[in-house]
């Protein structure tokens, strides 16, 4: 089943040490060669940030790989090491990781697939626009690499093994079918035992909004600071075809997404405003 | 022309000290009351980041306002001060600024309009997904505030006065017409003398991609670091209805955008993949 001609790039926003990434790696390495390029520490809710104002640092990972895998790499013919994982940690965001993997580390050798995750926590509804996990898949798609993001919908201690197996299955299907130009998949897996998962739903991005609050506190110097908290409201009114609804009903959610933000429906109406310079 | 019942929220990603924001303020205060809540320093290319892992700090701005404007504010009945500007600097991203303005500083009094800018540099094409300027308008739209982002398309020293006047005109039209739920405007103004601007184009988000490069350098300790550079390619093939094309032709570009990333066209095809759990 393993095809050494395949190169699959993995990244995430929880950082290169995250158990969700390692679980993903354990399954995906059954398909082909795997290169991990991920942030050196957690970068959650970074949105689609890229690092322009600071230089990026890159380290072989795990550090024992250093001698075998110099920076920059001498070749792009990556092979797994005996200790299991082959990769680089980057002092940047998930989007930075994909860019530097493609343009610098892989010297423009295009991976056959990019998978971002497995995120520890859901990326459904409005969360999608804040998600570093999804932004990495966006970046892969911009580079014309078939890409998907995958998240396990819990912030508690979690078992990533079922989600990882599903990622491998989905990877196989995408490698067969391809994805349309500019389109990628955002996958969320319910954090329930495998025998409680009721199926797979193809969904739209939910639009339920947050009720937010900034907790106001005093620091030890008696100065005020704020901390953001919040929860989604009106989830039940947002429709049974959404990602959030699927997860609530123990279904795996797969949403096809793209990065063309144009509202084409409103575009013609806006022309009728007949805006003038004078 | 000034209506003291109107409350207009201004923010940006260049930081509260930026001349583009001040130019915008000078024009918008002619329409109504203005509250500025902006990052305390530059936050460019932060995408739609929000700050979850750190507390946020808020300071009255300019600092001379401190006595008159405590934190949190005693009332949401904001009035301009004699020194011209009334606002808060926030130790966060543009999206943080909008959230904290609405949920904490304004105590959920909804502004009638949100304007993000005037950004020093273009936010066209793929840049839109990396843009902190645009993310603030996204955040306003999520809060159901009519919102637009506005950018001047140069990184050189620039005169923001024409773009600011145009922002005031557009603000007036939006206050009259409203915007559809979930939709906002991304405006780019060419950085040319006013008499060379040829009109207003209603556009779609361009899809021209970047040719990127990571410059590899050595630091004083002889360690490698990378710095991202790049430029757009294939601009000319991307179509005359794009934001980038409008700017190249000295037209003001207005793109209606939304934050529903679902690719509805591919959704039905994806259902035909008939993905199964087993």
CATH architecture of chain A: 3-Layer(aba) Sandwich
* Biggest chain contact: A-B, 82 and 82 residues
| Oligomer kind | homodimer
User: Which spans of chain A have pLDDT < 50 for at least 5 consecutive residues?
Assistant: none
| Rg of chain A, nearest Å | 20 Å
| Total number of strands of chain A | 11
Which helices and strands, and how do they pair?
Two copies of one chain form a homodimer.
Chain A lengths: L2 E9 L7 H10 L3 E8 L18 E4 L25 E4 L3 H12 L7 E8 L6 H4 L1 H11 L4 E6 L8 H17 L5 E7 L9 E4 L7 E9 L5 E9 L10 H6 L2 E8 L5 H8 L7
Helix pairs in contact in A: 1-5, 2-4
How would you explain this protein's 3D organization?
2 copies of one chain form a homodimer. Chain A has about 280 residues and is α/β, with parallel strands linked by helices. Chain A has a 9-stranded mixed beta sheet with strand order 3-4-2-1-5-6-7-11-8, sandwiched between helices. In chain A, helix 2 packs parallel to helix 4. Chain A has a single domain, classed as Stationary-phase Survival Protein Sure Homolog, Chain: A (3-Layer(aba) Sandwich). Helix content of chain A is about 25%, strand content about 25%. Chain A is built from 7 helices and 11 strands. In chain A, helix 5 (about 160-175) links the parallel strand 6 (about 145-150) and strand 7 (about 185-190). Chain A is globular. The longest helix of chain A has 17 residues, at about 160-175. At the A-B interface, helix 2, helix 3, helix 4, helix 5 and strand 7 of A face helix 2, helix 3, helix 4, helix 5 and strand 7 of B.
């Amino acid at each position: 089943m393993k095809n050494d001609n395949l190169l699959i790039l993995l990244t995430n926003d929880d950082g290169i040490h995250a158990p969700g990434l390692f679980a993903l790696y354990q399954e995906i390495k059954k398909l082909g060669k795997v290169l991990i390029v991920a942030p050196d520490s957690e970068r959650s809710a970074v949105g689609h940030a890229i690092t322009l104002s600071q230089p990026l640092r890159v380290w072989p990972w795990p550090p024992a790989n250093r001698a075998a895998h110099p920076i920059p790499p001498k070749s792009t013919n990556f092979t797994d090491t005996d200790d299991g994982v082959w990769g680089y940690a980057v002092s940047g965001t998930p989007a930075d990781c994909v860019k530097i993997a493609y343009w610098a580390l892989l010297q423009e050798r295009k991976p056959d697939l990019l998978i971002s995750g497995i995120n520890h926590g859901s990326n459904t509804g409005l969360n999608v626009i804040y998600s570093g996990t999804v932004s990495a898949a966006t970046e892969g798609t911009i580079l014309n690499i078939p890409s998907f993001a995958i998240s396990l919908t819990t912030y508690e201690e979690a078992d990533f093994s079922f989600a990882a197996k599903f990622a491998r299955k989905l990877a196989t299907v995408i490698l067969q079918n391809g994805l349309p130009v500019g389109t990628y998949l955002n996958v969320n897996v319910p954090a329930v035992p495998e025998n409680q998962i009721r199926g797979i739903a193809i969904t739209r991005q939910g639009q339920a909004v947050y009720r937010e609050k900034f907790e106001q506190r005093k620091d030890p110097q008696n100065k005020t600071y704020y901390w953001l908290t919040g929860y989604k409201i009106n989830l039940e009114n947002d429709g049974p075809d959404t990602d959030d609804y699927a997860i609530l009903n123990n279904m795996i959610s797969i949403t096809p997404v793209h990065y063309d933000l144009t509202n084409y429906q409103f575009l013609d109406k806006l022309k009728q405003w007949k805006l003038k310079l004078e």
